[in-house]
Amino acid sequence: MKPKRNDNIEVTETDEGLVLFQMNYDRIHNLNISASVIFELCDGTRSVHEIAEEVASVFELSDSPLTMTLDCIERLEREGLVFYDTGQSEFS
Q1: Measured between alpha carbons, how far is 32 from 29 in angstroms, rounded to an integer?
Q2: I want to staple 22 with a disulfide (CB 3.0 to 4.6 A). Which of 27, 45, 49, 63 is the partner?
Q3: What is the DSSP string of 33-73?
């Protein structure tokens, strides 16, 4: 499955990361730099594995941060900031 950003979120970029405003819940979320990168990569075209590989590239890491990426995406999903399109499969 490929995580995708919720379209009902207003995004503001800051020096420290992203500030996300959930209009439907009147909530604000402050994302640090690494969570911001992960959020930006959740565009519905990449799997969690592919996002982790991109994160490794962006931060010049020798190993893919798969566990950290998955944990972050799960938290973003719990907060309603990203979702999985159930019509997609991991291999599509």
Answers
A1: 10
A2: 27
A3: HHHHHHHHH-BSSS-HHHHHHHHHHHTT-SS--HHHHHHHH
pTM assigned to the model: 0.90
- Kindly state the tokens that stand for 7: 């379209």
Residue 15 three-state SS: coil
The type of residue at 70 is L
- Residue 86 pLDDT: 72
Domains along the sequence of the chain with CATH = 3-84 (1.10.10.1150)
With the C-alpha atoms ordered 44, 46, 52, 55, is the resulting torsion angle positive or negative?
A: negative
Burial of 72-84, coded b for 16+ CB within 10 Å and e otherwise, reads: bbeebeeeebbbe
Three-class SS state of 32: coil
pLDDT digits (tens, 9 = 90+) for 25-43: 899 999 999 999 999 999 9
